[in-house]
Automatic annotation (TrEMBL), chains A, B:
<dbReference type="InterPro" id="IPR004045">
    <property type="entry name" value="Glutathione_S-Trfase_N"/>
</dbReference>
<dbReference type="Pfam" id="PF00043">
    <property type="entry name" value="GST_C"/>
</dbReference>
<feature type="domain" description="GST C-terminal">
    <location>
        <begin position="89"/>
        <end position="216"/>
    </location>
</feature>
<dbReference type="Pfam" id="PF02798">
    <property type="entry name" value="GST_N"/>
</dbReference>
<dbReference type="InterPro" id="IPR036282">
    <property type="entry name" value="Glutathione-S-Trfase_C_sf"/>
</dbReference>
<dbReference type="InterPro" id="IPR004046">
    <property type="entry name" value="GST_C"/>
</dbReference>
<dbReference type="InterPro" id="IPR010987">
    <property type="entry name" value="Glutathione-S-Trfase_C-like"/>
</dbReference>
<dbReference type="InterPro" id="IPR036249">
    <property type="entry name" value="Thioredoxin-like_sf"/>
</dbReference>
<dbReference type="InterPro" id="IPR040079">
    <property type="entry name" value="Glutathione_S-Trfase"/>
</dbReference>
<feature type="domain" description="GST N-terminal">
    <location>
        <begin position="22"/>
        <end position="86"/>
    </location>
</feature>
<comment type="similarity">
    <text>Belongs to the GST superfamily.</text>
</comment>
<protein>
    <submittedName>
        <fullName>Glutathione S-transferase family protein</fullName>
    </submittedName>
</protein>
Length: 216, 216
């Protein structure tokens, strides 16, 4: 049995955006059943959890004897079971891994920086000075991606784990009206989000946090 | 033949820190010979290059029919040829990929943010406001790593591609006296840098840029 570790409850702005969504989505695409292990925020900081996850983060995935963290590594692992996530042909596989790392290394940090400014530093007096260059960096990456998507439905051939990562990265900017400036890119994000596996994963995460918020 | 694409020349602060170092180092560890394809900065912005590398970045690696970018994906690919970089045993392999993604997703963005502030925004009046929280985030990740390294020589069992990525990530902070606050972590970084393959890779990159700077 596969066991996915995530937080038991999160602040309301994070519901629908917790990174376990990537793993839930991949598991739905692969048709693999899983159970949840729910963690209180405070538990993530304790030595017992930090021995498994040194950054006190979620998600983690337990697959028999194997315990993995980092959503990229988890998706790569699930890809070994499911060629839809990670094709077996060497050429196609290389392109998918390229785009998995691109989503997490070349796009996410720039988008996350904007979210950090707007969400965690809102109102601090230096933010107005920091924001223009951060937004310019994010927009450059969005423009690069929009250009890459000319004539492509997915980042690397068929739909793959790379699209799961990139779509969830783009969703960091929900409500900021930035992705929407790029026609191909926003159509791509919407195409990802129309997949039944995404909808199921999102609904499941939202249902959990609706429940735990009521209980809180 | 393997062909590594990198910049023909770089500003002096970047010599020794261009990300092709990760690939050079991995190639030296694997004992794989390679040739260079040198790119002018201006060429990286041209459509011909952006068809191969949509973010106008280096490094790229050409391996026969395969062309890859993203240093993480390139190291994963080289790992298929070289078990020292990426072990074949499923458990060991999973731990190495976890730490490859951890280096690039959970550590590098926080360290790179500090470098961006100090190097690219030095003197702007908002930086003094932005820096404390950026430094706190970076220090948290360094502390997490230092704790993980208790009783470990390398991140995941034996030396692997994960250590190549993490060491080059830590080197982003060279001269900032932050890694040096953590005994195990700085000893780990030094242990990585003592490897003959690292020394050869670094010497080769420095030699190229010494040469092209003289020519400029």
């Amino acid at each position: 049995m596969l066991t996915l570790t995530t937080f038991r409850s999160v602040p309301s702005f994070a519901a629908g955006y917790v990174r376990d969504l990537r793993v839930r989505w991949a598991l739905e695409e692969a048709g693999l059943p899983y159970q949840l292990r729910l963690l209180a925020f405070e538990e993530a900081a304790l030595p017992a959890y930090r021995k498994e996850q040194p950054f006190s983060q979620v998600p983690m995935l337990q697959d028999g004897e194997l315990t993995l963290f980092e959503s990229g590594a988890i998706l790569l692992h699930l890809g070994e079971r499911c060629p839809l996530l990670l094709p077996q042909d060497a050429h196609a596989r290389a392109q998918v891994t390229v785009w998995m790392f691109a989503a997490l290394s070349s796009v996410e940090p720039y988008l996350a920086e904007l979210v950090t400014l707007d969400l965690f530093h809102a109102g601090e007096d230096w933010v107005a000075g920091a924001r223009p260059s951060a937004e310019a960096m994010a927009l450059k990456r969005l423009r690069d991606l929009d250009e890459w998507l000319a004539g492509r439905d997915w980042l690397a051939g068929e739909f793959s784990a790379a699209d799961i990562l990139m779509c969830t990265v783009l969703r960091l900017l929900d409500g900021m009206d930035l992705v929407e400036r790029f026609g191909r890119l926003s159509a791509y994000r919407d195409r990802c989000m129309e997949r039944p596996a995404f909808r199921k994963a999102l609904a499941d995460q939202l249902a959990l946090y609706a429940q735990t918020s009521q209980a809180a």
